[in-house]
Amino acid sequence: MIRSHHLPLMVTLATFVLAYALCGMQYPSMFSTRVVANLLTDNAFLGIVAVGMTFVILSGGIDLSVGSVIAFSGVFLAVILRDTAIHPLAAFVLVLCITTAFGASMGALIHYLEMPPFIVTLAGMFLARGAAYVLSTDSVPIDHAFYDVLKDIYWKAPSGGRFRLIGGLMIVTFVVAGLVLHRTRFGQNVYALGGGAATARLMGVPLAGTTIGIYAVSGGLAGLAGIVFSLYTSAGYSLATVGVELDAIAAVVIGGTLLSGGYGFVAGTFFGILIMGLIQTYIVFDGSLSSWWTKIVIGGLLFAFILLQKGLTWATTTRRKTATGFATQS
Amino acid sequence: MTDDPRPMLHARGVSKFFPGAVALDDVELKLYPGEVHALLGENGAGKSTLIKCLTGVYRRDGGVITLDGADIAPHSTLDSQKLGIGTVYQEVNLLPNLTVAENLFLGRQPTRLGLLARRRMVTEAREVLADYGLDIDPAEPLTSYSVAVQQVVAIARAVEMSGKVLILDEPTASLDRDEVQLLFSVIRTLKARGLAVVFITHFLDQVFDISDRATILRNGRVVGTRLLDGVSQTDIVTLMLGRQLEARVHDRAPRTLGDLLIEVDGLAKSGMLDPASLRIHKGEVVGLAGLLGSGRTETANLIFGAVPADQGRILREGHEIRVTNPREAVAQGFALCPEDRKTDGIVGDLSVRDNIVLALQARQGWWRPIPRAKVTEIAEHYVKALDIRLASLDMPIRLLSGGNQQKALLARWLATAPDFLILDEPTRGIDVGAHAEIIALIESLREQGMALLVASSELEELVAYSTRVIVLRDRRQVSELTGDAISTSNIIHAIADEPIQEAS
Ligand SMILES: Nc1ncnc2c1ncn2[C@@H]1O[C@H](COP(=O)(O)OP(=O)(O)OP(=O)(O)O)[C@@H](O)[C@H]1O
Ligand SMILES: [Mg+2]
Q: How many angstroms separate the CA of residue B348 from the nearest CA in chain A?
């Protein structure tokens, strides 16, 4: 049964289908598996980080640090693989531990010091970016046999598209996140927090654990996105992925999640990512359009979705059913 | 019961200080298993604060709490829930973005293989709610149901949580008689099961109906604990107020009606209210009676333009006026004090002062600010007139006690000096003393020539101040009582669709 809070998700889905159909009518080759595969591969790191952002925004917060954390993870991996003999897998685990702990400590600051997430994660953003600079200011190439092995893992579709590991990783992330959000107590607590922290507290939601957990998830996924990004670019560069946090926020909002928290689905974020990737692909296909058009279209979409959400909130509050539902109404 | 050597919960010497106020001072509360214990006191006496100290929402500044003989020190609602203390707090208790079932089970959802069993959650929720006479779809969002249903869900949630103690802070404020009776039957079952139940309310009838003992607070101190069998309502009220509540003799002397002020002609909105017509004169109080969901609030909202009507018209002194939104209504000299202060009323973080002048300032226009001194004068006047208890005018209104917030909201609309005042449940959550004052206030406003439309579920109250009562049923006006025909029994008959008895 479709409920009003499912509507933004439906709209996102419809937008994607419509946009894809229009693109495909103009350039039939956009329907090819190659384009689909590239869409997934190119947006893998953004998708993963947007999943973390979905947790944060659902809880009514924001995480501005993720772009810097991705850059930091990339540089960290590049430097550690260049300077030590450590196995990449061990390095991955190390990166995930560091970034998760980083996110968790931001969450702790937000909860215990009652500071706005905006400020705390802004500080985190500078901190992570600074740490990346400290490690190296140049782009450090990653040249490791294991990286080549990972990059060679792909599934070739009959018509030629190569579905690579990192695209698959993104999809797995989305599926797991969906399960966590909808089918675990932690996930329910995330929604509860977004519905109102004061009420959630009076209902017995463990605010400290949930807040710390949410930012730990976001930090950890930013770390995972950093690993994926380093696989994607085979390098670590401290100036990379500037502003990716804003792309992630845009994807979440286009995906139908309410910026003030409480309402939304991780599936929406997936289509948000695909819509943004689609616009980019279209511009590449067109060839004559400036890539700035991507930003303009995304800006327009954002406005449209925010208006839609306002409208929906308005419609549900004024047209609230007053049915009492008491069986014994005499 | 009282000879049981060990209380279920025993709080001693509980104190709580807020900046500028001593909310609790050396309070003792003893709850025995299998008793319903009423906690009584005026608005701002410290009832809610005591509950919050017991359940770990506030850190108490002193005192010892034992549960079942063991010392406890809960630091959060979660802790107290784990200890078997379920609580319905006075504030909003549920989350609007979750479904009914999710709200009911938040924190203790049934799981299978580590994942939530959503379907089972819905079936179980349906079973639980059936015990409360609710036949609703728990998979629907909470907000698709009325405040009364939400309140019952909150109570059901607390009951499910409480293994030892159940605390209810004004749970019946938005419930109808029948619903209250259902709640009481649930409470009686819990009592038989040996739970200790704390019940806070301003309805003394309900206190005597369900409670065994009562502890009375005044200004943060316990002024007495009484077995309710041996005392009268008057004793309790005297303890609460620290003085006698003088009985008001209600005279039914003929009242001089002023000119016709407002005429509502066939105002309706499909699905909300069937065409309603009414005429209100200056110096008249028209009461709206009916069960919850009968269309009382809807009538008020349509007339005020809070919800645009889809047919009908409103005339003011014979001229048709346009009232499609509250701003136009305010410009016409209308005012509406809404039923649900939590969602439609107060701006929690704004100071009491600013909350009181909000409507007046809005009518003047934001570009013509009211001078600060004037604002303070207005605010002080109403704080005094309505006896609003506060530490300072600058404190955020959300820190006031529930009943005092309600009074501040009333002050906001009185400050606009309206010609036509609509009050929706003006005495909800207000203590007996202030209750009488508000009724007196309505009388005096009427005498000054104001036209009032008052929706209320308290029939005695309606009878006390109405010059005419309109009875609604199923979103329709079913009858109108005037003069001596206005009596509680006649209103009940009209609501229940039985023949009206002649005034005796
Ligand atoms: N957080 C706070 N900061 C400052 N003062 C507070 C705070 N919370 C409550 N108070 C004050 O403590 C007093 C007791 O409030 P409380 O809410 O316990 O009253 P109550 O007995 O529940 O009244 P009501 O019947 O109106 O609900 C009030 O004067 C209130 O203004
Ligand atoms: Mg209270």
A: 12
- What are the angstrom distances between the C-alpha of A270 and each of A299, B229, B329? 18, 65, 46
- Beta-sheet strands, E only, within A200-300: 235-236
Q: Is the dihedral of CA B91, B93, B94, B95 positive or negative?
A: positive
> Does A206 sit within 8 Å of B76, measured CB to CB?
yes
> Which DSSP helix (H) or strand (E) runs through A293?
helix A292-318
Q: Give the 3-state secondary structure of residue B280.
A: strand
Confidence of residue A1 (pLDDT cuts 50, 70, 90): very low
Q: Do residues B410 and B426 share a domain? A: no
What CATH number is attached to the domain comprising B215? Answer: 3.40.50.300
Tell me: do B82 and B186 sit in the same domain.
Answer: yes
Predicted pLDDT of residue A195: 92
- The residue-averaged pLDDT of B134-145 equals 88
Q: Write down the pLDDT at residue A324.
A: 40
**Of the spans A64-73, B379-388, B484-493, which averages the highest pLDDT?**
A64-73
Residue scoring higher pLDDT (B49 or B268): B49
Shortest Cα distance, chain A CAs vs residue B57, angstroms: 7
Residue B498, in any domain of the structure? yes
Of B169, B200, B231, which residue is a domain's last? B231
Residue A90 in any domain: the answer is yes
> Which residues of A fall within a CB distance of 8 Å from B102?
188, 191
Tokens 């590449």 sit at which residue? Answer: A284
Least CA distance to A321: which residue of chain B?
A: B144
**How many domains is chain B partitioned into structurally?**
3
- Chain A residues whose beta carbon lies within 8 Å of the beta carbon of residue B474: none
Per the structure, the complete domain to which residue B202 belongs is given by: 9-97+141-231
Indicate yes or no: CB of A203 within 8 angstroms of CB of B95: yes
ipTM of this predicted complex? 0.86
Residues B195 and B316 in one domain: no
- Contact assignment for A5 to B136 by CB distance below 8 Å: no
Task: Render pLDDT for A258-316 as a digit per residue (tens, 0 to 9).
Answer: 888 899 999 999 999 999 999 888 888 888 888 788 888 888 888 888 887 777 767 66
Separation in Å, CA of B377 to nearest CA in chain A: 33
CATH number reported for the structural domain that contains residue A196 in this entry = 1.10.3470
B82 and B150 housed in the same domain: yes
Q: Is residue A325 part of a domain?
A: no
Is residue B374, in this structure, part of any structural domain at all? yes
Q: Which residues in chain B are closer than 8 Å to A203, comparing Cβ atoms?
A: 77, 93-95, 103, 106-107, 157
pTM over 0.90: no
Residue B119 lies in a domain: no
Clarify whether residues B48 and B157 are in a common domain.
yes
Please report the sign of the dihedral spanned by the C-alpha atoms of residue B105, residue B106, residue B108, residue B113: positive
Q: How many inter-chain contacts (A to B, CB under 8 Å) are there?
A: 130
Q: Has residue A329 been placed in a domain? A: no
Q: What DSSP element (H or E) covers A98? A: helix A88-112
Largest CA distance in chain A: 80
Name the amino acid, one letter, at B483.
G
Q: Do B146 and A183 touch (CB under 8 A)?
A: no
Nearest chain B Cα distance for residue A202, angstroms: 6
Query: For the residues B96-115, what does the mean pLDDT come to?
Result: 90
The domain tally of chain A equals 1
- Report yes or no on A96 lying in a domain: yes
Where in the sequence is the domain holding A236, given as residue range(s)?
4-316
Q: Going by DSSP bridges, is the β-strand pair B284-289/B468-473 parallel, antiparallel, or unpaired?
A: parallel
Which of B75, B79, B85, B95 would best serve as a mutation to test chain A binding (most A beta carbons within 10 A)? Answer: B95
> Comparing C-alpha atoms, which of A283, A269, A25 is closest to residue A171?
A269
Residues of chain A contacting residue B91, judged by C-beta atoms under 8 Å apart: 198-199, 202
Domain limit, last residue, from B166, B200, B231: B231
What tokens does B387 get?
A: 């006896």
Task: Determine the residue among A111, A203, A205, A328 to mutate to test chain B binding: the one whose Cβ has the most chain B Cβ atoms within 10 Å.
Answer: A203
Listed residue (B353, B354, B337) closest to B345, CA to CA: B337
Q: Supply the residue whose CA is at minimum distance from atom 22 of ligand 1.
A: B48
Q: List all residues whose CB is within 6 A of at least one atom of ligand 1.
A: B 18, 21, 23, 41, 43-49, 90, 389-391, 399-404, 431
